[in-house]
Amino acid sequence: MMLLYLPKLDEIIGGEDASPHSMPYMTFLKFDITGNTYKRCGGILISEDVVLTAAHCNGTNMQVILGAHNIKSKENSWQVIKVCKSVPHQQHKKPGNDIMLLKLREKAVLNRYVLPLPINHSGGKVKPGSVCSVAGWGRIKEYNKDESPTLKKVDLKVVSEKICSETFPNINLKNFICAGDPQENKYAYNGDSGGPLFCGTDLQGIVQGGNYNKPPTGLYTKVSSHLKWMKQTIHTMRCKK
């Protein structure tokens, strides 16, 4: 789920099926790796034509599926829209800045299956011990490549900076939320990158990455650290005609 300094996280481990269409802002993102295979990520629809995701989910021939629960079997609720522009954070290779905005070629048709999640962040700090949730269509087994056809979610505990530093000793944790109790076998993994971490009703983080040798503690890019960048970037995003 991330670039350079951490192994990728791409699956929900220890979770369960989300209630179908209970998260109408969830976005399934697919893009080319070699031209004949594709990679998957999650994302959050934050307006009719803008998706929030992780910067390491950038690629070619990008498109999103909105309104999906099962992404292996086409549903009447699906809206498949191409991405016309991707804008990763200008410092996305530095820890804590793995965030990107996607401009869609056309506006989504809003209905009960597809609704944006406005970013009205209170800015409150998430305390260790808080229970948050993460969702995605990533892998569901630790030792094979089986990916979930249906949207999964799992509850995770936020851990202290001290515990997080034991897993990620050389990383500045300022712009991260660290979640995943070392005593519980529950975490995000391959394919869940770019998906949301909710604490209460607030979108607090974006799935970034972890340490394959020390699951389940993982890193989530802190949304509140990037609100100004997001607002400024959205106003400048245009599709080429």
TrEMBL record:
Alphabetized Pfam families for the sequence: Trypsin
Domain of life the protein comes from: Eukaryota
PROSITE patterns tied to this protein: TRYPSIN_DOM, TRYPSIN_HIS
CDD domains, sorted: Tryp_SPc
Claim: Signal is one of the keywords in the record: yes
Transmembrane residue ranges: none
Residues annotated as domain Peptidase S1: 12-235
Assigned keywords, A-Z: Disulfide bond, Signal, Zymogen
Record InterPro entries: Peptidase_S1_PA, Peptidase_S1_PA_chymotrypsin, Peptidase_S1A, Trypsin_dom, TRYPSIN_HIS
SUPFAM superfamilies for this protein: Trypsin-like serine proteases (SSF50494)
Keyword Signal included in the entry's annotation: yes
Gene3D superfamilies with a match to the protein in the record: Trypsin-like serine proteases (2.40.10.10)
Name by which UniProt lists this protein: Peptidase S1 domain-containing protein
